[in-house]
Amino acid sequence: MAYSASQRHSYIREHPLRWALQAVSVGALAGMGVGFFLGAHSPLDFAMNALVGTIFSSVMWAGFDILHSPFESYKSGWSPERVGLMSILWMLLLYGVLLLVAVGLIRLLTGLNLLGNRSALVFTVLVGLAVSGFIATKETISAHVATERRLVQAEARASFLSLQAQIQPHTLFNALNTIAALIPEDPRRAEEATERLSALLRRILGALEQPVWSLQEEFALLEHLLRLEALRFGERLNYQLILEPAMAEQQIQPLLLLPLVENSLKHGFRPKVEACHLTVRAEGGYIRIEDDGVGRAEGAPDGVGLRTVRERLEASGGSLHWLPAEEGCALEVRLS
To answer: Could you give the C-alpha distances from 15 to 21, 64, 140, 214, in angstroms and in order?
Structure first.
């Protein structure tokens, strides 16, 4: 996958100070290293070599960043091999032009003619190759990592779309069963359950329209779900939602915790005859979902909901882990 003109980011524009420090460091080290290899030993020689290397690094890095290959966007009908070949030819041409620009700038600033003798010419070529090699390697690795992350995020997004198609019917069917069971026994509670269902579905619909929302909004959604479940199961279900104020406005992917809570209700609580306690705790930078239900068989595979949450978390740098529990199950969510 390649960058298009609109997708490609400029490292220099986004991180000017970091780029300047790296350009000076790489250039100085390359200049002094090549100079030492060619026989430079005095402090003045090292200082001059470091200056020359810094100029090379700044010119070449800026040139490669600004004048990146126009063939990075795949041409219609072009094979990847052809794109790669044209990009290499462009990079060689760009390297030659930037090398001449750097030599001219060095002549202007220091008076050195790096093309004037054989030793200086060798120094010029080696420093240019060292600097451009570092830059090309860094840019290639960065592009590869960025591409991999976009692919992971795309896969997680696809999983989320699949989850969207499952959540509403699943939640709706459970809620309708609750209301149907309450109507002949307690019409007032059936009416309350209907209102809870309406509020829950409104929040779910709102969540599906947003790329992120606050942890406080996610907890409000969980509150509607658990109150609806409590109307059905009465005193058998006890729950706590604990949200540390410092984490209330932290941005997360919508509906991230909902499948985890539903998983505890379905697999941990419903098969258990006795009362069950569920806790969702967000504090100290992590979120834990704990229940004292029937527990989980060791080595049991994750279901669709858990796998989707895990993929969504990993795509954004987070993680999902099972924790040891004396009774029931415990999950820990790390957001980053």
So the answer is: 10, 15, 18, 28
